[in-house]
Amino acid sequence: MKITHIELIPIYSTREMGRTCPSDSEKAISYHLIVRLHTEADITGLGEMSDVNFDLTPETVNGLAARLSPLLVGHNPFDLTTIQVALEQQEWEHQVLAGIDIALHDAIGKALDVPAYQLFGGRYRERIPFAYPLAPCQIEADVEANLQRIDKLQDQGHPTIRYYFGANLILDERFLSELRKRWGNKVEINALDASGRFDVETAIDVIHRFTPFKPNLVESPVKGRQNAPVENFIAVKQAVDVPISEHCSEAHVAVRLARHEAVDVFNLGVGYSGMTACQKTFGLAELFEIKTLLGSTVELSIGTAARAHIAAAMPNIDFPCYPAGPLVYYEQVVKERVRYDEGHIIVPEGPGLGVELDEERLAAQRLW
Asked: Could you tell me the pTM of the whole model?
């Protein structure tokens, strides 16, 4: 089963949150590349480069396809390691490796007629605890806008949130205070994500200030994020009582933080280098006895399905995960979205990723 050609389809999707802040009536737009790996066996592997940060002009997309084709065409998707090694010898934009790796695993799963989670050791869980990500409050109106989102999530059976804070600490405090006043502990704050906003001293002060709101963890507390000196993480970790988390985009980042016991939790993601690399970092976390959660770039259902299959097979997931794209985006390009139920992501069944493109929806979302 050899790959005959690669197809990259640029699309847009509209987020339910505002473009500039939670209360903005103009909705945010994200851009994605849908990947189709065609094979001579009439099996097509689906992938997704999610919420990409590079321009999806014809020149850029066609140039990317031209770079990828010699590394893929003529190869069997089952020659996964050979393909991955060749891809890793070049520099790529964020999400490119992930999109290709997802498509390769989808093709392999379809060829074997098994769900993708079987390629990673089998299904350990059918449902993945879920936390909905909320954007930071920046203006007064954002407080009520985010509270209304929580009200809606409660009605949908999703009690857990992830909140990006630090843009305006006064509004953050007002929002979280009102959250606790209205719902008490019925709303679980899985993470307060500082997005690398603070120096060490400020991070410690801010975490002490927000600990009474009972977050499960605080993520990316210091400037530089995963590339910050380990001494900065250690200083914060030793000074506070709440667990500290950081994104681990690559195995070498995870090893550096783990060796120095710099963080308590790894935020691991498929979106960095793909499903195989993500499995490796889960293994590293297990070896170093570091807790984990599965992160997100806000994907459509193809990318969300890939993350669900990884999470289904990993035994060491300790906190709710936040792939939320099928709830966040108004439009989708598959026949059936990844489902959510009572605070959980439901792992799709069927061969490969278990999702199927809807050609009419895909055509409606195409950029060109």
From this structure: 0.96
